[in-house]
Design goal:
- The protein has helices spanning about 20-45, 70, 75-90, 95-120, 125-135, 150-170, 200-210, and strands at about 50-55, 60-65, 140-145.
- The protein is mostly helical.
- A 3-stranded antiparallel beta sheet has the order 2-1-3.
- Strand 1 (about 50-55) and strand 2 (about 60-65) form a beta hairpin.
Amino acid sequence: MTSAVPPPRTEDTSTSESPAQRSSRRSIAVALLLGAVGAALALLASRQAWAHGTASVAGGELPLTAKGSDVTGVPAALAIVGLAALVAVFAVRRAGRFLVSLLLTLSGGGIVAAALLGANDSDSLDEKAATASGDAATTIGDLSHTGWPYAAAAAGALLLLAGLLALTYGRSWPAMSGRYERDGTPSPRKARRAPDPERPEELWKALDRGEDPTHGT
């Protein structure tokens, strides 16, 4: 015997979203991934050795190393600014979101520029050589550079792409607010239930809130 009751229908949520909503959701995920990885990589690269060399001290050779933070503090500083801007994108709306997205984009571009300018830097090692030898005219020898400046530049490019995504799709991204739903409309508030006269604790709670417990009874 077959049942006359039809089987329950399952709604396909994959087709309930419009192409614009799917594109917006993907852009959020990509921007967050690019921004987080870019900021972390820029901070990591700033702590690594960017250049090596030797200085002549007391008839010997003293090996010296210049970290990214010794060459320039711009990538690390802008990585923090970019990461903060990435989070702030979801806390603001309209013109504020555009400005924050622009700040994120500029932070990435600034990291790229600073890293490429410092890729062949030797001034920081010359300063260390002068300090170690006590002679301001001392310069560094056997100068060599690592690939970490280019890693920092790549990190800046990731932040730059995250900023461009925010500028392009940011208007459709949701904001971090408990009073609003995804479409921006205020969420309905639950109606407050009238106190039950049979429960004295409910009457006391109503009095504490400044309400008249006898209203509506």
